[in-house]
Amino acid sequence: MVPTPIGNLLDITYRSIDILKKVDYIITENKKHTSILLNYFFIKNKLLTLNIINEKKKTQDYINILKDGNNLALVSNAGTPVINDPGFLLIKYAYDNNIRVVPLPGSCAAITALSASGLQSNKFCYEGFLSKKKQLCQNQIKKLSEEKRTIILYESPKRLINTIKLIKKIMGKKRKILVAKEITKKWENIQRGAADKILDKISNDDNWKKGEITIIINGIKEKKIQSIPKKIFKIINIIKKETSVSSAIKIVSKIYGYPKNILYNAIINKFKKVD
Ligand code: SAM
């Protein structure tokens, strides 16, 4: 497993270069893409492909090559193979066939962005790309809004503004986020702040319409659930008698600016019963 740079070609380890020179074959997502890296480091080796289209078909062939005693290096277009990249089946089959899997450390956009986030990074969850389907994407963000760990997402520039709008709407306008574009590349741009401020900043800047993007979202703090003033519970209690708990939460959220999910959690914790 050989990680390759996520932009700056110098972000590769000596050991990775050494392995890419020594193995019998390099398995790559895209031959053209990998050739740029190999040429840069004067590496000459034979390339095989593994991508989302041929993964099922090719994996067994590559296991056979390994069983014949060859060494294979797996690389993707950028970063750590298998992290939102092809290769999972190959690794699984390798273990099933008692073939040794050797992971090399190296570039990964998720970890690189997290390391510069200034958000809690001892506990985090990696969610990859959100669904492209509107409703599913909303549901995912709703679920993540209760996550206490720091959240890492990959995002395309096409969906970035919409995703931040959803984060603002569902997680609250004050939720702290970091948006990192083109890390290690010429147009690297990292913005950190409350969701509403980040939305304003990037909506008015055409540079955010292209490039590769990683989003880091602050998790909720336990104490936030506890820190709803008593007055708010009283108001929800009064309104809920006229309508329902969910409508009461919606109204109070609009007036007082507490995110709906935080109010909902607080109510559940307080009354342990919601209609
Ligand atoms: N395997 C890769 C890794 O280890 O990071 C991730 C592959 S995934 C198909 C590609 C996504 O990673 C991009 O769409 C973007 O969300 C994120 N990404 C990759 N390179 C990046 C960079 N230089 N800056 C910010 N995000 C990046």
CATH class bucket of the largest domain: Alpha Beta
Pattern of helices and strands: HEHEHEHHEHEHEEHEHHHH
Helix percentage: 40-55%
Note the overall shape. elongated
What gyration radius follows from the Cα positions, in whole Å?
23 Å
Number of strands: 8
Distance between the termini: 51 Å
Oligomer: single chain
CATH architecture of the largest domain: 2-Layer Sandwich
- Compute the number of structural domains: 3
Structural class: alpha/beta
Question: Quick check: average pLDDT?
Answer: 94
What is the CATH superfamily classification of the largest domain? Tetrapyrrole methylase, C-terminal domain
With strands numbered from the N-terminus, the spatial order across the biggest sheet is: 4-5-8-6-7
Strand count, sense and barrel status of the largest sheet are:
5 strands, mixed
Counting H and I runs of at least 4 residues, what is the number of helices?
12
Heteromolecules bound: S-adenosylmethionine
Which regions contain 5 or more consecutive residues with pLDDT less than 50? none
CATH-defined topology of the largest domain: Methyltransferase, Cobalt-precorrin-4 Transmethylase, Domain 2
Protein name: Ribosomal RNA small subunit methyltransferase I
Subcellular location: Cytoplasm
Keywords: Cytoplasm, Methyltransferase, rRNA processing, S-adenosyl-L-methionine, Transferase
Function: Catalyzes the 2'-O-methylation of the ribose of cytidine 1402 (C1402) in 16S rRNA.
